[in-house]
Structures are given as C-alpha cells and as structure tokens.
TrEMBL record:
Signal peptide: none annotated. It is found in: Cell membrane. This is MFS transporter. The chain crosses the membrane at residues 21-43, 49-72, 84-106, 112-133, 154-173, 185-207. GO terms for molecular function: transmembrane transporter activity. The keyword Repeat does not apply. Residues 18-216 form the Major facilitator superfamily (MFS) profile domain. GO terms for cellular component: plasma membrane. It is a multi-pass membrane protein. Keywords: Cell membrane, Membrane, Transmembrane, Transmembrane helix, Transport. InterPro entries: MFS, MFS_dom, MFS_trans_sf, MFS_Transporters. It comes from the Bacteria. Pfam families: MFS_1 (PF07690).
Length: 216
C-alpha cells in the first residue's frame, strides 16, 4: 500500500491548523464581545451601579487587554503558539466560569477579578492564533489569510453581541430587561456566561486536536 506523500500530509496538517485557528479566533472574539454586551445590564440592574460607575467598570477590561498585548506576544514567542492558544482558551474558560459564579457571591470584586483573568487570556489567544496561522502561510498568501482572520473576528464580534445577548434576554424570565428583577438579571448573566464557557472549552479541545505537538 502506497504511503501518502509528505506534501499531502503537510497540506492536511495546515488545513487542520487553519480550521482550528479560525474556530479559536471566532470563539474568543464572540465571547469577549458578549461580555461587553451583557456586562452593563448586569452591573446596572443586578449590582445597582450608576451610569458613571458602569462605564468605569466596563472600561477596565479594554484597559487590561491593551496593557497585556505586548506581554502576551512575548509569552507566545517564549512558549510557542500551540501551547499558548490552548492555555489562553483554557484561561478564558476559567474566567467565564468565574464571571458567572463568583460575581454573584462577591459582587463587583468578583466581577473585576474575573475580568483580570478573561481579558489578558483573550490577548494571548489573539497573539498565538495570529502567529500560528501566519507562520504556516506562503508569502504571497499572507494578505488574503490576514483578511480572512480579520473577517472571522469581525463576524464573531457581531454574532457574539447578538446571539449571547439573545441568550441573556431569553434566560431572564422577564419580558423586558428594564423591568427584570436583580435576581433575574443575575440568573440570565450566569446562564449566558456558562454557555460561553462551554464554547471556549470546546474551542480549547479543537485547538489542541488541530495543533498536534511536534515529535521530539
């Protein structure tokens, strides 16, 4: 029986890596957008914060993400994209579970602590994912592949806001967010973020399977 050509094996490996990277890219972006969409109603309706306080708390995540961008890239250079994609998605899952559970018991402190885990992990996923994809692409295809990554991330931001927002509203048990009780809002937030955690956990498994470890 003829063995497959090494070139065919390499092409299959690249296709697997591309599929896993695109799934990781869209999952991470949709989840991070759902936090920005669901966070303000939770902070306002369940925790009772004012408009200025809500704006201040919501801005913490983007600030942490901006500050962690360069360190995330250094970690990817040090440990490699495969390991950091899996680790970043795993930490995002942990952050989402913490966001769904600890913030209900510890209020604003729990919410802030979960964001400190979630947003740097997202930056790690983005840096590692970009490096993983672009390092396996021919020079004359890098512009097109970069455009595909950008498109997938943009679509994920849109679907994350709409789909996770719909899950949140559906889980409220009330017809309107404005009339929902703090308990209903907290319950809706918990359901939405636990579903998001399942998504990132699945993305972690896909990333691990599509980025096989190099033989020693």
């Amino acid at each position: 029986m003829a063995h497959p050509s090494p070139l065919i094996h390499l092409a299959q490996l690249r296709n697997r890596r591309m599929i896993g990277s695109l799934f990781a890219n869209t999952s991470a972006a949709s989840v991070i957008m759902s936090v920005l969409a669901i966070g303000p109603p939770y902070l306002f309706g369940a925790l009772g914060l004012g408009a200025a306080a809500v704006g201040l708390v919501v801005s913490v995540g983007p600030v942490i993400a901006a500050l962690s961008g360069v360190p995330a890239g250094l970690l990817v250079d040090r440990f490699g994209p495969r390991r950091m994609i899996v680790m970043g998605l795993g930490c995002m899952t942990l952050g989402l579970v913490s966001l769904a559970l600890t913030s209900l018991h510890y209020g604003l402190a729990g919410y802030g602590a979960a964001m400190c885990v979630l947003t740097p992990s997202y930056q790690v996923v983005v840096a590692a994912n970009n490096m993983s994809v672009m390092s396996g692409v021919e020079e004359d295809q890098r512009g097109a592949i970069s455009g595909v990554l950008t498109l997938s991330r943009s679509l994920a931001l849109t679907t994350g806001a709409s789909m996770m927002g719909a899950i949140f509203v559906y889980s409220l048990g009330a017809s309107d967010v404005a009339t929902a009780s703090p308990g209903d809002i907290a319950s809706g937030m918990r359901t939405a973020f636990l579903i998001a955690a399942v998504l990132t956990l699945f993305a972690t498994l896909i990333a691990k399977a599509s980025h096989p470890a190099r033989p020693k």
